[in-house]
Design brief:
Structural class: alpha+beta
Strand content: 15-25%
Shape: globular
Helix content: 25-40%
Largest sheet: 5 strands, antiparallel
Oligomer: single chain
Length: 186
Amino acid sequence: MISHPSRHCTVELQALPSRIGQVRRIVSAQLRYWHLDPLIDRAALGVTELLTNVHRHAQPDKTCTVEIELLLDRLMVSVRDHDPRLPVVADIHDIKDTKDADALATCGRGLAMVAAVSESWGVRPDGDSGKVVWFTLPTPSSTPAGAARPLRRAITEKHAHQFAKVDHVDDLHRPEHAPARSAVVG
């Protein structure tokens, strides 16, 4: 039996609009599993903004890795891509001084939003061919460090011995070699 459930989750993906929504749902589900429901909205917003930046700006490809890690008193969310160029943060004061059309622009404020919803954030080079953009969120004080739902695996294994072993079953309605299928698009 595992005494400390995993406090780390990694997802590799192409930063495409459909994938960004999937990762947002994965992050939300993982935070629910860790009993960190109050962090879901801010974590989902932050990861969406970081993945959108990869989609819009990263070169040579859109491949990236999202990592979320539950530390003692904070949640660390990071996105690693293969573009060594560091992001440029738009200054809100500069935006107000420009013409009205620029002030109403719908892009260019992603990192400012990440900074606004997070405890801290930053960017660091990742070798010669990439970077990691990260942010942290404080965990709620009502959640003790290490609190997580118990593993269901032990319960499943306990009841598995109740079933009789079956060596072979003929299913005349199913082809012998059916192609594998996936519920994940792409």
